[in-house]
Amino acid sequence: MSAPSIVPTPRQQSLVRAAARALARANLAHAYGHCSLRLDKDHFLVCAAKPMGMIAPHEAGTVVPVHGELPEGVLGEVRIHQHIYRLREDVGAVVRSMPRDVMTLSSARITPAPRHGMGSYFSPAVPLWDDPQLVRSDEQAAGVAAALGNARAVVMRGNGAVVAAPSIEQAVVLTWYLEDAARIELQLRAAGLADGPILSPEEAARRATGAGRIFERMWEYLCDGDPEFADVI
Residues 181-198, buried b or exposed e (16+ Cβ, 10 A)? Predict the structure, then answer.
C-alpha cells in the first residue's frame, strides 16, 4: 500500500496516545480496544495496535484511509472506525472500548437508560448491536455503524462499546459517561429499583450540556499524570 498522503501533527499523535492511555487508566479498556482521530475527510489516525495502556510516548499511530483496505498491522476491528467516518461527517473521533458494567448489561441485551446527568448524553437510548462476534469483516462493521446511526454510542452484545464524538477528548469523556450510566443501571436493577424514573428527552436535552468546561474538566481528570499531559491540555 502506498504511503498516506497526510502526515499527522505531533499534537495529533499526542492526543491519540493520551486518549488511549486515559481509557486504560480508567479501566475502560484492557488488552483490547483502540481509539482514533479524524485527520480529514479521507483519513484518520488510529492508536498503535497494542494494549492502550502500554502505548509509550512518541509511539506513533497509523494513518488509515476512510475508504480502502486497512494498512498492514492495523487491527481488524478498526473497520468499525472506517464505516462510522464514512456515514457521519460530524464525527471527529471514535473509541472502541471494553467497559466492565457496559459488558455485563450487554450480555443480557440491556443498555443503560438515561437515568442521571451523565446518562443524559445518550438519550433517548443507547442502541444495541445484537451480535457477540468479533467484527472482522466490512459487512459486520457496516452493521455496527448502521446500528449506531446518529447516536453517540452503540453497545455490542457481550463485546464492549463504540463511542463517536466531534473530538477525541469528547469521545473519551463520553466513554466514561457511558460506563457510569451502566453502573447506575446495574445497581438500580440489583436493588429492584429498575422501575425508577428515566430522564425525558426534554430533560436530557437540557442536562446534556457542554457548557462550563464539562468535557474539558473530565478530560483533564482522566489525563492527570499522563506523560504527555502538558501536550494535550
Answer: bbbbbbebeeeeeeeeeb
User: Which 8-state DSSP code applies to residue 22?
Assistant: H
Residue of 126, 117, 113, 187 whose CA lies nearest to 156: 126
DSSP state of 63: E
User: Does the structure show a pLDDT above 70 at 4?
Assistant: no
Domains, the chain, in order of start with CATH, read: 10-222 (3.40.225.10)
113-159 pLDDT, tens digit each: 999 999 999 999 999 999 999 999 999 999 999 999 999 999 999 99
Q: How confident is the model at residue 5 (pLDDT cuts 50, 70, 90)?
A: confident
Instruction: Round to the nearest angstrom and report the end-to-end CA distance of the chain.
Output: 35
Q: At what angle do helices 10-25 and 214-223 cross, to 10 degrees?
A: 80
Beta bridge partners of 164: 94
Q: What count of other Cβ atoms lies within 10 Å of the Cβ of residue 156?
A: 25
Q: Does position 160 have pLDDT exceeding 80, yes or no?
A: yes
Dist. CA 133–CA 86, nearest whole Å: 22
Residues in contact with 74: Cβ distance below 8 Å, sequence separation at least 6, in sequence order: 46, 49, 62, 64
The three grid cell numbers given for residue 169, joined into one nine-digit string: 477528548
